């Protein structure tokens, strides 16, 4: 039976706050094979009964069930309802379940593009004297308004300078946390949309917000500067109310609002939060006049031209993890253990009396003696503190901070703490899970767990490097390296789309890309050596401007992201071209193969020369840009940059290979990028692979690579007839290896291969995160090679997949699943003697090429016709589930 399982609008199932007509997609399911859509009918209406249509496609002959664009007139602050039915020529589905989306605010001229909204409401602040400039405290702002008629629907549009939580009539609105997130505020600020119909009441209503410094004015960045974007927190709100009589009213923040200090007496991203219940104001956001020292608010000017609507991927509490144990350390400290490294906050329950204090210090690891280890937090205090105002039992958590932790040191607690009194609440951007992978090796399963939790810990509105120390920055290198792995694990489309907008607005006028995005360090050196050397445009870091959009295009098949990022991408290529010398690219500070193990003693910079790594990325990014220009139909641009690409490749080959075909840099990373970026002369590929294998053997089969070489190591081997070597590398269990960390008890990915040494000592104190996802980029190889789930660049987004599981590693089985925009792509292989049992699942309305690794004969083809290729047999298959048996 043919049916529609799910509808997507801009890759989300229920976006709230869209500022343009979204693109549509739907997921089809069927119990038959080789099913392709022949036609569809899509309707969009103002009502759930679909009597008031704004769009009706009628029966449309089309195979497309994704990236469907429609024309229609949208209104401000309105919920629209969507349904679709489809046919395959033999069957027609019923109408799908109804989906919906909510519009944000249109632009000044009423246009519906992703531009600035026609914002009416001023920003109001409770910080009205000079003392606020260096304050870390929280504030309240509030105001009343009257609803005189029967409400049909109402939507609130809110944002802040600083962090905020929004309240109506005493209730927190929505489930969002850490809003409005972290952006380059003066160039890009997101506002949130909430359906508040059920929050309003006839008569007088109370509205309000709690505010805190957050990323906006708190202490942040390598220089530990304050007031990076401004020095005054402020809140803005517009509620659009649509009445049953057809009239509409806007309710905005204004000078009638008042403000005062909140019970949050201290809140900083790095240092945590202190809450004094003595300062609570009961019913502060209700309509009744509350107690407290309320004063008129001050209006704060902000250029609303940079504001954009956020329709999804907002930060939520995603997991609730009970404490596993409470124990005493050898030093006598009482510690809570959650048995999982993570990012978020702790919810604690305690009974106390006035003046009692709950105080916890969050941290990642124990030292070699089993004691509390805080040194790798550097200056971050990561402390949460609550003071009781009256006798009773409270359940409390911080609101305007987050910590990276597995453990918490109990500094103060009334009574005897028990494990059931503590719950860890993880915080990250809300993204649907899309990937699963399991195999017969439990260590690899734990590795998968670890890089998944690396994502969950570091995708908190921005792809950060680590969640625990006084850094937590959006390093572009980490984001680029991990991007493909992340897109297998979760639906990261909206998340990266937002972050790439920040990257674009933070580019220099010449096209340079900052080391961190948002670029909180812009214009600062403050004695910081790194920033003084060059605050932008490092190869492999800045190339996120190219590689991340390309990855999204591959995984989602979406040209919109290429259109949005086109100027940014071209700007970065042109920056490299402008600063290259005879096609060799190198510029100011380069990180090179960062923290590679072949670095000189005491250095973070790997042994591979910067000229080589920079020029390799110059070629790679230029080549990807050519492909994206072609995808956009920009043939003239593609031809120009294809010529540039050819010249860079020739220069790379002439410079970094000698006359005998040996690489001039005898490092693992040099060989890896030459192979994976396809920069090796054809006649020297085999020699380069052998050279890499020799360098690997020299290290007894271990890697000594850093940020540049590690992500591509296994690919460079498995794509060049060295699959066994790739598996052997992955499966190493001693230092340095991925599984060394696993065997040491890691639950996330470490920053350094030996963050925790064999003797229990630490790599260092100054830069030693145990939750740093970059090396989790191995996940990409596990999905693409082990499970064999690969996107086809010619038909991206898994419209046509390449299913090529690489059998090896003494694994008995591997099962991988990736939930694409079309549905689940699944591969499972099992070894039974000399035979491989292969099961593949191909979504409706898609096709795939199935490749059988090292197949000698096909025993069971399940109706498919396999032909012999160089190293495998292959068959083209339509949708459905196939069971194949072959001899290896």
From TrEMBL:
Domain spans labelled Alpha-L-rhamnosidase six-hairpin glycosidase: 433-785
Annotated keywords: Hydrolase
Domain Alpha-L-rhamnosidase concanavalin-like: 328-428
Boundaries of every Bacterial alpha-L-rhamnosidase N-terminal domain copy: 149-317
Pfam families documented for this protein: Bac_rhamnosid, Bac_rhamnosid6H, Bac_rhamnosid_C, Bac_rhamnosid_N, Ig_Rha78A_N
Catalytic activity: Hydrolysis of terminal non-reducing alpha-L-rhamnose residues in alpha-L-rhamnosides
Domain Alpha-L-rhamnosidase C-terminal: 788-858
Assigned EC number: 3.2.1.40
Listed InterPro entries: 6-hairpin_glycosidase_sf, 6hp_glycosidase-like_sf, Alpha_rhamnosid, Bac_rhamnosid6H, Bac_rhamnosid_C, Bac_rhamnosid_N, Ig-like_fold, Rhamnosid_concanavalin
Coiled-coil annotated spans: none
Gene Ontology molecular function: any one: hydrolase activity
Presence of the UniProt keyword Nucleotidyltransferase in the record: no
Enzyme class at the top of the EC tree: hydrolase
PANTHER family hit by this protein: ALPHA-RHAMNOSIDASE (EUROFUNG), ALPHA-RHAMNOSIDASE (EUROFUNG)-RELATED
Name the UniProt record assigns to this protein: alpha-L-rhamnosidase
